[in-house]
Amino acid sequence: xxxxxxxxxxxxxxxxxxxxxxxxxxxxxxxxxxxxxxxxxxxxxxxxxxxxxxxxxxxxxxxxxxxxxxxxxxxxxxxxxxxxxxxxxxxxxxxxxxxxxxxxxxxxxxxxxxxxxxxxxxxxxxxxxxxxxxxxxxxxxxxxxxxxxxxxxxxxxxxxxxxxxxxxxxxxxxxxxxx
Length: 179
What we know:
two-stranded antiparallel sheet
């Protein structure tokens, strides 16, 4: 029974080695076309980015200068904002927003200093994080020295999946044309 494709149509099974080689040749042709189209796409995207970059940089600089001027005006004219700390105008809004609450060490303290002080005070013990997790990398490195029974006893097993691949052969010339 043929397996259906994404559109629900059955995919015909390959019957002979010659047919398989023909299908592989088709995959190779499609791969070359995909590579060519990706190169065209990347080249055009880069051209547009290169064309727009100077103008974007200039406009961003102009915007930043004007925002600085507005910030200076806002600082010197705080009463204009009232209790809302913002002004809604026909051209847009400006004002002051509170950012997210964050923690920072006081002057003269580093995060390591803070950690050491938190550890010494029982009241703050719950605010010190300790992360425990399985060190998979170390287990993989030591895989030859760990008996399978011991691994199973802790609920683990080695697993290595076999995956199907198709790797069309592309000549050096074909590769250069797509790079």
